[in-house]
Design goal:
Largest sheet: 2 strands, antiparallel
Radius of gyration: 30 Å
Helix content: 55-70%
Distance between the termini: 83 Å
Structural class: mainly alpha
Number of strands: 2
Low-confidence stretches: none
Order of helices and strands: HEEHHHH
């Protein structure tokens, strides 16, 4: 009788490990019945990815500003501002701000 219970406990723990990997958990009811339920899936927002995307955007703007120079970059933004609505919105996003100017000042000497 003891061997049967030990064997059952081993099988039960093996199933619990297997189901834990697959996103399911089990428990034994008061009547000895196995109840299997799926774990709720959580929504994880990729904050690190979003931060990397924003930093990359500012670095790209700073690189373009330092390579083209402020005059040429301003002329190209002026052309975009006179274009369609989408181009005008792009010109607003690509405009020179304090963070872009600071990064361009740091990147500029490295490129020359």
């Amino acid at each position: 009788m003891v061997e049967t219970k030990d064997h059952f406990v081993q099988r039960l723990s093996g199933l619990q490990r297997k189901h834990a990997k697959s996103g399911v958990y089990t428990r034994v009811d008061n009547n000895g019945v196995l109840i299997i339920k799926a774990k709720r899936s959580r929504f994880y927002f990729p904050y690190k990815g979003l931060a990397l995307l924003v930093v990359s955007f500012f670095v790209l703007k700073a690189f373009m500003l330092s390579v083209n120079g402020p005059d040429t970059y301003g002329d190209r933004l002026a052309i975009l501002e006179n274009g369609t609505i989408v181009e005008a919105m792009g010109a607003k996003l690509l405009g020179v701000d304090a963070a872009t100017q600071m990064l361009a000042d740091k990147i500029g000497p490295l490129l020359r």
